[in-house]
Design brief:
40% helix; eleven-stranded antiparallel sheet
């Protein structure tokens, strides 16, 4: 239940996000109309349509993408007609007779006292087809769950809760706007001018959406948007759901204890250590069970090997496993794949070798352990005491000192006495494992497969599951495009001919790209340029100063690390051989 509340609150926060701007004119055009017959049906239509389309898009494949494209075109035409009727009845009369009839009806029902429920709902459906909300942490969580577990009632209801939150804040905006417009009408008598102004705003919004500015230009306004507030919601509220959340506040008491009593930690009990059954394979160990681990302090780390957030936590998890092994700590990595290529055992073995992971790793390709823990995050750390009770959970990277204090506290509890805390580990993390420069980070995760692609500016548009020749103009911040002949699938894009590339405008210290050599496994050579030149001192750990590199494994490649001041740059990668697969950009 708590996740539905969080989804609703995240939706309500979209009113302060730039991505709500394109649909505001359509919603505000209902100001001054009866709430129950005009405003409410429109918002309901928006909620229903968004929940249905988002559910299908997350699990339905290319046919859902094509269907939604057709729906968007129809919605653009419908709302454009609505905007024209708001401008002038003379303009509406210049359209063909069927359009005139429709326009007149829409105009009368949009501005009259007796608004039609059907017309308002229809406009809401059109708005829902056009709305492309910012994919913050909470919406991303819901869509990822849909992709992993398939379409289900819970996914649709969560999306509906998100849309309902947005509709609530929009309704408040409309009601506030109604009072403002009413006051202006009474004092200035400019009702007709207001109606025409709304018509201009509606047509401007339609034009922006038709040109793709709703996802391109608005991304430049604020990358962070409401992301920080959403993450705070997850941290503060999601913990109320038991093992699926982080305890609020300082859950530890590290004061003095009576030496005559057996030490007992003040960490809360969040749940029981559930079964580890369901792994398709165990690496670095025989299969382990919760029962045989009783008496040990256990850290369960959910990760996947191409996830940059997971990669940056590995040095700490590895250091904890080594430092506290002799005191009774057992670390278990649960590898739950995000992409299909991460299900291949050989790929995971190579990653374990690359990251020098020596602790047991359970291969959770079917997400059985993931679901048993009710987990929702990469990375996620669950800290389990010697009695088999979950006492703490940490979601996402960071907060390492507190996590290590939890380990020390649980080990002290298992031993029955509190020892002096030792210094925290300080791993010498290099390359992609190094901590991010969050203070200067203005670019976020960007997927290349059509299921989650955003801010794509190649004028040809994404051709789902079909080979297409692409071109790209100079992108603005956080925009990207393809050049050459590519086939874009749900998770990745595959290059059909040598010479193709990808261009991305970013602002971050580090740029990473998950790449693979393709089905035939042949090495793919590439060259990187930054602002049209060799990267030099700004090269990442997987290329040289001239920008040369090659793709031989499917993994995350660090391609840029700015050595000086972090500023906005244009990244270009050109592949000298065909067959490469590109999955996702990440930054640090």
């Amino acid at each position: 239940m708590i996740l539905f509340l969080i989804a609703y609150l995240a939706g309500a926060l979209t009113i302060v996000s730039p991505c709500i701007l394109p649909v505001l004119p359509f919603v505000l055009s209902r100001a001054g109309q009866p709430f129950t017959r005009s405003i409410l049906p429109m918002l309901i239509g928006m909620i229903v349509t968004f929940a249905a389309v988002a559910t299908l898009a997350a699990v339905g494949g290319s046919w859902a993408v094509h269907a939604n494209e057709i729906g968007r075109y129809a919605a653009i035409a419908l709302i454009a007609a609505f905007g024209v009727t708001l401008l002038s009845s003379r303009i509406a009369a210049m359209v063909t007779r069927p359009a005139v009839a429709l326009g007149s009806r829409l105009s009368q029902q949009a501005s009259g006292k007796k608004a039609s429920l059907g017309t308002s709902f229809l406009l809401g459906v059109a708005t829902g087809l056009l709305w492309a909300p910012c994919a913050g942490p909470i919406l991303g969580l819901v869509l990822t769950g849909a992709a992993l577990q398939g379409a289900n009632v819970q996914t649709t209801l969560l999306l509906a809760a998100y849309a309902a939150g947005a509709a609530t804040s929009l309704a408040m905006a409309v009601l506030a706007g109604e009072k403002v417009f009413g006051a202006m009408k009474r004092s200035l008598g400019v009702g007709e001018r207001l109606r025409q102004g709304l018509g201009v705003a509606v047509l401007a919004g339609v034009t922006a959406i038709a040109l793709g500015l709703d996802t391109g230009l608005l991304s430049r306004l604020s990358y962070a948007s409401s992301t920080g507030i959403e993450q705070s919601l997850l941290d503060r509220l999601h913990g109320a759901g038991g093992t699926a959340g982080k305890p609020a506040g300082n859950a530890m008491q590290l004061g003095a204890n009576d030496a005559s009593k057996r030490y007992q930690s003040d960490l809360p009990v969040l749940g029981r250590f559930v079964s580890l059954d369901g792994a398709v394979e165990w690496l670095n160990s025989k299969p382990l069970t919760a029962e045989e681990l009783r008496g040990k302090v256990v850290l369960v780390d959910f990760w996947t090997y191409s996830c940059i957030n997971c990669i940056r936590t590995i040095p700490y998890v590895r250091a904890w496993a080594e430092k506290y092994r002799d005191r009774g700590l057992v670390v278990i990595g649960v590898h739950s794949p995000e992409f299909a290529f991460e299900k291949r055992l050989d790929n995971v073995r190579q990653a374990i070798d690359k990251f020098q992971i020596g602790y047991p790793v359970a291969i959770d390709n079917n997400f059985k352990i993931w679901r048993a823990f009710a987990n929702n995050y990469w990375p996620a750390h669950y800290f389990i005491d010697a009695k088999g009770q979950i006492r703490h959970a940490q979601f996402g990277e960071g907060d390492y000192e507190r996590s290590e204090r939890v380990i020390q506290d649980l080990l002290a509890e298992a031993a029955g006495s509190k020892k002096a805390d030792t210094a925290s580990v300080t791993p010498n993390a290099k390359g992609a494992e190094a901590a991010p420069d969050l203070a200067r980070l203005q670019s976020g995760e960007s997927y290349i497969g059509y299921l989650r692609a955003a801010n794509f500016i190649s004028p040809e548009g994404i051709g789902a599951d079909a080979a297409r020749d692409y071109t790209v103009r100079q992108p603005s911040l956080n925009e990207w495009g393809l050049t050459g002949k590519w086939t874009v699938a749900g998770e990745q894009a595959s290059l059909e001919q040598a010479g193709g590339g990808i261009t991305y405008r970013f602002s971050a210290r580090d740029l990473h790209l998950v790449l693979g050599p393709g089905a035939d496994g042949r090495k793919v050579r590439f060259q990187v340029k930054v602002d049209g030149a060799a990267p030099g001192a700004d090269h990442g750990s997987d290329i040289d100063v001239e920008g040369n590199g090659s793709v031989s494994q499917t993994r995350l490649y660090q391609l840029v690390r700015q050595s000086g001041d972090v500023r906005e740059r244009t990244f270009e990668i050109r592949f000298l051989d065909p067959g490469v697969e590109a999955f996702v950009f990440t930054f640090g």
